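Known limitations

Structure tokens in this collection are predictions and should be treated as such. Users comparing against experimental data should check residue numbering before alignment. To illustrate the layout, the record for TonB-dependent receptor is reproduced below. The input appears on top and the generated tokens appear beneath it.
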Amino acid sequence: MRRSLLARTVVGLVLSFQGLARAGQETPAPEASEPPLPEFVLPTVEVIGKEVPEAPVDSARRRDPTGAITVIDARERAGEARDTAELLGGSASLVVQDSGGYGQSKSLVVRGASSNGVLVFLDGIPLNGAGGVADLSLIPVALLERMEILRGAAGARYGAGGLGGAVNLVTRAPSSRLLSSGEVTYGSFDTVMAHVAASGALLGGQALVLLHGGRSQGDFSYRVDELPALDDNPLTQEVRTRNDARGGGALLKYRRGLDGGGRVDVLAEVSLEDRALAGTVQNPTVSRRQDQTRLSLGARWARPFGDTGEGSARGFFRRDWLDVTGGTTGVDSGAQRYTVGGVELEGRAVLGRNALAVTLAGSSESVTQAVGGQAASWWRASVMAMDELSLFSERLKLVPSVRVERVGHYSLLSPKLGASVDLGHGFGVRANAGQSHRAPSFLELYIRQGLLLPNPELKPERALSVDAAALWHDDIWSVTAGGFAAVYENLIAYELYPPNLARPYNFAAARVWGAEVELEARPRAWFTATSSYAWTRTQNRYGDPRYFGKELPYRPRHKWVGRLRVGPDWLNGRTEVLVQSAQLINRVGEARLSLPSRTWVSVGASSTFLHRPDLTVSFDVKNLLDVRTADYTGMPLPGRAAYVTLSVALDPSTSEDSHVASPP
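Generated tokens:
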């Protein structure tokens, strides 16, 4: 048996096996002859099957062949009143931390890791800010083609920060054909969202232009217990304000093929947002607002070398402008500027049974804060090597990888070992074991934020994680079931620092373990059903007896999501149910102060009633049962909401605008 070129670098990691997971599917539909006049669609059903395409070179499946990966096709939700966080929240072990309605901050917790331990990218451009958290409210679904989610140790393939996983948001691809589309949504809380897009040939390549915008007043009524410590206290009616937001932006993409089979891609994306900040239930604000602007630039070149090699080079730049106004003297953080840019070189070669990949990356980050003239910057540099060893006619794959990284003055080592076995007849198993790190953020290390002090003596957080699962699939069914476990060490948390300040410190550890199940059924192309369930247990290992052994806050133990879509394009209906158990809101574990369990039911219907141009009308009701819940600060979240969407698409014969797509 031939040894892997990198096997020696991962001795000591636990090895088990899990099968390859299915990725999203798409296949072009055959073009129809163009009629001279618009035609109304008769109620007939014609379904076109789909093939599984080869994974793109820069896709999550190619970057981590044995990883626990889910791919969500955002285009299948075209016409639905959904945001990016809602779509991601349908995946197993992903919990959305939502602070309000449209435009309010939304972040992810993956497999128990905090939001600053989950990496988020936009076409490979990192979106985590100076505090280490990525705000998904700034990425509308209109920009996206698919979402690639890696659960588990992501440090080896994606770098520092990936304790719980990584999410890559892939934007829409340009087309050589002249295509245009538009969409407008109006609904509850005076919410309006819209976008227009056009794509076509330009300068020997393909270009895409997309403009988007929206606003929401966000005010709604709710009932609150003003004295929760007293039993049978009457509820009072309140109206939530300070929940309004507005924003917009643009996406520009250009793609061109080169001689020798190469390709170059260029991206420019800008977003602007203005939103009210409500504060917390205990300390609400009356005038605090946040203005945020982001500019992202990226370019990537790639080409094959012979029959067995390929190489790529990419560069990126991102600049965030963040202004907070209306705060209390001594608390207001003022204007903040965050800049990050870097380059990455990657090569891959197939050598017999081995497929060896090497990545060299370097970047620079800096942050400035107006209050006190605070500033900080550092360099990042890393070398990553991965080997994909195929044995027994490619039924067994061993994938060792390792990344050596320097982040500021921290030196980090992130090894990983993955394996997969194809057992035949649709059965398979796969497994991974690895180590990841998160260097402290600029805000935790150097920048004072009102009453929050920095601590330059912080150590990097570390995660040791393993996962394993079995799967089975055929032409109709796909089932994946498995478990995971992780130990988080040197966790960073803010503690009281006399007299009335808080400061971050490293604490001992936390344990996380659980199980995941994902299911998809497609008995007909016009009938799809998906379901995901996650059972997650957490345990605080901090030595203080008040917290030791308690569950971590904001980590629900159970989460189940089920979705059903029935019908062809001319008329279809859908429903989605999310069930999430109660969450603790402090480390002491007082159940009476926890966020209660929730069951959210959403329903909708769509009809593409006219062709050439395609005209689609959709109706959605979110939180049909009007379940009232609160965010992680205690502020109430919106109740029942209804939305109507009108979509227009020219040249609908291409699959790029298809409303029939595979679910995640």
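For this record: DSSP finds four helices and 34 strands in the chain. Residues 1-53, 653-664 have pLDDT under 50 and may be disordered. Please report discrepancies through the issue tracker.
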